[in-house]
Amino acid sequence: MNTLKRLFVVTLFLFSCSAWSGPKEDLSILHQQVSRSLASSHIKSVYHYMELECEQLMYEKTDDKFLKYLRNEIKLSIGKHFCELVEESPALQADVEYEAQRDYISMADYSKLVDVIYSSFHDKR
Q: Is 113 found in the same domain as 92?
């Protein structure tokens, strides 16, 4: 509960700061984000999902709506073989052409992908 209070105070501070600096449209978006945050304190952080092993992210049984959405998006855009492409430390290559044609997904790209899909999921809600 203490974390929720802190979130609320920080959100109100950000909301008041942006009220003086941005157009009303920005305030509306911020207000929607604050409402979502406070109404759904059970939403897990994007960092929680970024830290999951690929197999956990893609295959473990879950009721998590975001994970279901993420799995569907990855399967549609990359394919079912996604986890086979994720490598923690791919071999270092000096050849620029190799980098352009690489057949792996680095951990940085993995985290970025989760972040983009997370943002997309929560912007639609």
A: yes
112 C-beta neighbours (distance < 10 Å), count: 13
Provide the whole-model pTM.
Answer: 0.58
Instruction: Say yes or no: 50 and 100 in one domain.
Output: yes
Q: Check whether residue 21 and residue 67 sit in a common domain.
A: no
Q: Which strand (E) or helix (H) includes residue 108? A: helix 107-124
CA–CA separation, 101 and 98 (whole Å):
5
Of 79, 78, 51, 56, the closest CA to residue 67 belongs to 56
Q: Tens place of pLDDT for every residue, the chain, 125 residues?
A: 455 556 555 555 555 555 455 555 666 676 666 555 544 557 788 999 999 999 999 999 999 999 999 999 999 999 998 998 888 765 555 555 555 556 778 888 999 999 999 999 988 76
Regarding whether 68 and 35 lie in a shared domain, the answer is no
Reduced to 3 DSSP states, what percent helix, strand and coil does the chain have, rounded to the nearest 5?
Answer: 70, 0, 30
Q: Which of 10, 27, 42 is the last residue of a domain?
A: 42
